[in-house]
Automatic annotation (TrEMBL):
<dbReference type="GO" id="GO:0005829">
    <property type="term" value="C:cytosol"/>
</dbReference>
<dbReference type="GO" id="GO:0034599">
    <property type="term" value="P:cellular response to oxidative stress"/>
</dbReference>
<dbReference type="GO" id="GO:0016798">
    <property type="term" value="F:hydrolase activity, acting on glycosyl bonds"/>
</dbReference>
<comment type="similarity">
    <text>Belongs to the Fe(2+)-trafficking protein family.</text>
</comment>
<comment type="function">
    <text>Could be a mediator in iron transactions between iron acquisition and iron-requiring processes, such as synthesis and/or repair of Fe-S clusters in biosynthetic enzymes. Necessary to maintain high levels of aconitase under oxidative stress.</text>
</comment>
<dbReference type="InterPro" id="IPR007457">
    <property type="entry name" value="Fe_traffick_prot_YggX"/>
</dbReference>
<dbReference type="InterPro" id="IPR036766">
    <property type="entry name" value="Fe_traffick_prot_YggX_sf"/>
</dbReference>
<protein>
    <recommendedName>
        <fullName>Probable Fe(2+)-trafficking protein</fullName>
    </recommendedName>
</protein>
<dbReference type="GO" id="GO:0005506">
    <property type="term" value="F:iron ion binding"/>
</dbReference>
<keyword id="KW-0326">Glycosidase</keyword>
<keyword id="KW-0378">Hydrolase</keyword>
<dbReference type="Pfam" id="PF04362">
    <property type="entry name" value="Iron_traffic"/>
</dbReference>
<keyword id="KW-0408">Iron</keyword>
Length: 90
């Protein structure tokens, strides 16, 4: 049985995550308000960001940067800026 939530990213009811994928209060907020679809979108952006900026996930500054980007993307509707990335035209 899938869990339905109102996704703050998609602005509609959608299937919620099966479990909390991110630690702490932000993780709880994501679990309660972000759908599987929106999380998958973020994962793609996150991978591009890590590769583009050569982020080291062992570095607390890099992790903090990524967390800030994630929060802005998921909750504030901000597009992730990736140097040299041109989104495919729809």
């Amino acid at each position: 049985m899938s869990r339905m939530i109102y996704c703050q990213y998609l602005k509609k009811d959608a299937e919620g995550l099966d479990f909390q994928l991110y630690p702490g209060d932000l993780g709880k907020r994501i679990f309660d308000n972000i759908s599987k679809e929106a999380w998958a979108e973020w994962q793609k952006k996150q991978t591009m960001l890590i590769n583009e900026k050569k982020l080291n996930m062992m570095d607390p500054q890099d992790r903090a940067f990524l967390e800030k980007e994630m929060e802005a993307f998921l909750f504030e509707g901000k597009e992730v800026q990736i140097d040299g990335y041109v989104p495919p035209e729809s």
